[in-house]
Every structure is written in structure tokens, then in C-alpha cells.
Specification:
Layout lengths: L5 E5 L2 H14 L8 H9 L17 E5 L8 H9 L6
Parallel strand pairs: 1-2
């Protein structure tokens, strides 16, 4: 029987907006995500990144803050996903 774990990767709205803009400018493959339309909606106040709600699943979930240094570490996240005992 398979087991599932989930992780939610979060950053403050200002950082998330900057990352969206950078990815839209640097990666033409991001066109499928319609980042430019999202950025326009953010600029015009038609959308807010603060309204983001992570998926709610009935599985173990770890929130990862990527606002500066990835916390917890990538090694701890991998241990969590593998079902091991991470140090966080």
C-alpha cells in the first residue's frame, strides 16, 4: 500500500511576486503558466497573493519557508518525504 506525504512551499507575497516576475522574464517555457497575466492582475489589484491557500490533504504535510534560506534543509525535506525521521 502506498503512503503519501505533502509539502507546502511558502514565501511572503512580495518575494513570491518578484519570483514570478523573474521567471516570466527569464524562462519562455513559463508562458503556459500565464505569469504575465497574473502579474498584471496583481498590479491592478484584481488578485492578491495573500489569498493563496495551500492544498489541504489528509496526509502528513510539512510547510517549507523559502523566503530566504530553505528551512528546513533539503536533506530534512527529503527524509520527510521518504518517511524517515527528519531533524526538524
Amino acid at each position: 500500500m502506498a503512503t503519501f506525504e505533502s509539502s507546502a512551499v511558502l514565501a511572503p507575497a512580495a518575494i513570491a511576486r518578484d519570483r514570478i516576475a523573474q521567471r516570466a522574464a527569464e524562462n519562455p517555457h513559463r508562458a503556459a503558466h500565464d505569469d504575465r497575466e497574473l502579474l498584471e492582475a496583481l498590479t491592478q489589484g484584481d488578485h492578491s497573493l495573500e489569498s493563496f491557500v495551500p492544498l489541504s490533504l489528509d496526509v502528513p504535510t510539512k510547510v517549507v519557508d523559502t523566503s530566504s534560506v530553505c528551512a528546513p534543509s533539503i536533506e530534512d525535506i527529503a527524509a520527510f518525504v521518504r518517511g524517515g525521521t527528519p531533524s526538524f
